[in-house]
Specification:
It contains one helix and nine strands. It is mainly beta. It has a single domain, classed as Jelly Rolls, CATH 2.60.120.10. It is globular and about 40 Å long.
């Protein structure tokens, strides 16, 4: 099913078993280890400002600059250090909110899979 198909019809998906596509990391984001990222967009608004999907990362340490995001961890564990903010310990069943522009360091202890909703600024 493509994103366009999903936008026009209700659907369900078992998150733990969903197939994901490679999403290569920028080598400058990798602090340590050999983390591998995969993901899948499930729905995107016509203007591209709202995105819902699945994302997974294997163990390692990476940095990121965040978008406005709500996510729920399905499996795995990580420590997320927010520059100038809290350190978040996340695992299965945890919901997390990150803000646009937050600079983060993710220490992934066990392969982490999450489902997310991202809001991007409009034009």
């Amino acid at each position: 099913m493509t994103t366009n198909d999903q936008a026009s019809a209700p659907f369900s998906l078992h998150i733990a078993d969903a197939d994901l596509e490679p999403e290569p990391l920028d080598p400058e984001q990798i602090v340590s280890g050999d983390p591998v990222v995969t993901g899948r967009v499930l729905w995107e608004s016509a203007d591209g400002t709202q995105i819902r999907g699945l994302w997974q990362i294997t163990p390692g340490v990476v940095t990121d600059t965040e978008a406005d995001e709500l996510f729920v961890v399905v499996s795995g564990r990580a420590t997320i250090e927010v520059d100038g903010g809290p350190t978040l310990e996340v695992g299965p069943g945890d919901a997390c909110v990150l803000r646009e522009g937050d600079r983060t360091t993710w220490t992934v202890h066990e392969t982490l899979r999450k489902t997310y909703h991202i809001s991007l600024p409009g034009d």
